């Protein structure tokens, strides 16, 4: 499969959260690459990664970062590839600062933002973007949704409130 997601994150401390991205993409059969790149400690590398992403076959970038969380915005500033930001829970504000940093991008530089530590949703959003082009990913997403509904025992009707 040629679908490819670039997964980047600011430091090794983000690995436990970002591992969920890998697990979700693996479960959907989506190829990805993962790199530690810091917007603050390796800015030239961050810019180069973003600028060359599309040429390397990257179709979506998932960027996770905590604290000031500039990595997703840096990626978005240097590419037109869709960027999904994951605010990672860290520091005194437990990820709120990262959430606001990622969600408050200036007009013209969009970053899709998931909830704090929302790695699984970021991966699924990437799959939804790719599913527009790749029918096999669309099929896997549809099957996942069917399975989810079955697991919760989705039922309807007023009688549900009358059961004992």
In brief, what are we looking at here?
By secondary structure, the protein is of the alpha/beta class.
CATH architecture: 3-Layer(aba) Sandwich
CATH topology: Rossmann fold
End-to-end separation in angstroms reads 50 Å
* Percentage of β-strand residues: 15-25%
Count of β-strands: 5
Please describe the topology of this protein.
Elements: E1 4-9, H1 15-27, E2 31-36, H2 43-52, E3 60-66, H3 71-77, E4 83-88, H4 96-103, E5 112-113, H5 119-131, H6 135-151
Parallel strand pairs: 1-2, 1-3, 3-4, 4-5
Structural summary, described in words:
The protein is built from six helices and five strands; from the N terminus they run βαβαβαβαβαα. It is of the alpha/beta class. It has a single domain, classed as 3-Layer(aba) Sandwich (Rossmann fold), CATH 3.40.50.1970. The protein has a five-stranded parallel β-sheet with strand order 2-1-3-4-5, sandwiched between helices. Strand 4, helix 4 (about 95-105) and strand 5 (about 110-115) form a beta-alpha-beta unit. Helix 2 crosses helix 3 and helix 5 (about 120-130) crosses helix 6. The longest helix is centred in the C-terminal third of the chain and has 17 residues, at about 135-150. The radius of gyration is 17 Å and the shape is globular. The protein starts with a strand and ends in a 13-residue tail after the last helix.
